[in-house]
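Practice record 12: protein with heme C.
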Amino acid sequence: MDSAYLIEIGSLLLRWLHLIVGIAWIGSSFYFVWLDNTLKAPSDPDLIAKGVGGELWAVHGGGFYNPQKYLVAPKNLPDDLHWFKWESYSTWITGFFLLGVLYYSQAATYMVDPAKAALTPGQAIGVGLATLAGGWLVYDGLCRLLMKRSLLLFAALYFIFVVAVAYALTHLLSGRAAFLHVGAMIATTMSGNVFFWIIPGQKTTVAAMQRGEVPDAIHGQRAKQRSVHNNYLTLPVLFCMISNHYAFTYNHPQAWLVLAAIMLAAVLIRHFFNLKHKGIFAWQYPLTGGAILLAVFVWLAPAPLAVSAASAPQLADIEPIIAARCAGCHATAPTLMPAAPAGVLLDNPAAIRANGPRILAQAVQLKAMPLGNITAMTDAERAKLAAWVAGGYR
Ligand code: HEC
């Protein structure tokens, strides 16, 4: 089996798995935040005596459920206690391997953009890995310094930090690698919260109980705080993870600002849902979020093509451009890739003509192609392709 096919299989299996465990993790995050926000103080004196601070009733799949939350911990530790940690760890592990298979093993094509920075593939990978680790250190530092003083100050500084990282990465790496790494950095921080704070905090609580002591509530409170941060970070991360399909977002000259705006909108929308669980309908949040998204989409709309059919270039005029800029990858026997990516062949006139609308979309409107502009296509060449399309692909 050739290497391109192996990479393809690895990517399929890892992506599939990553999606499955990611759904399990985010699903439980949504569920527990909903649960916490929806619990009501019990009226039953037995429950109060047991130390239950909140409960609720729910029906799902034909069964009735009655979760109860203890103020700190139950008096006796149950034998069978479920821990929610592998959802997070397996999401991080599969995500990291996927990053390796897709980006790090093909860094020259997927990460380096010579128009932005003359990095070697090794340097680009170094930037990526440093972002993942550095993102955690800065977040954790800010959290330790500020969480007790001001949540708002913490949130503002962390947002500024993420935007600064987005700015730096979109100037160092290809647009899609930059967006993906912002997402991977935040996701690594979320898993760091589970690994370094939430689970250890719970372990300390359990250990204190096993010694017969009353556990300190601070461990639970800290774990809760980090868990709530994770909840707010889910939507921005998910956008970053799907952003590679939307070149118009990451290929914009101010891509960092596009990302900042979309992430802000996502957090506002998440905030609405978290308030709604408590019975507060604060419509200003999703409305502002929606308005931000709308403004971004209007801002990024591609300019209409203005070319008269009479003066439009012919296929023969654009063939050399495609041969020089695209056929290195999109050919039956490509030189820059092991096999023609996405099955798109652009090495003969009939195929070029048949792919006209896709060439327009990928090379002109989205500037997603050539990948990482590795073949250094110029704006004049893109304009010529656009004119050829506008002239009716003759
Ligand atoms: C360095 C290799 C490379 C070069 C050069 C390149 N492409 Fe691609 N192309 C890819 C890869 C890889 C994909 C698969 C999609 C992805 O990974 O995002 C792709 C996908 C495509 C697709 C399908 C996208 C879709 O979602 O439908 C089109 C169309 C395309 N390229 C057109 C072009 C055109 C036009 C050029 C020249 C201007 C070009 N490509 C140059 C690597 C390349």
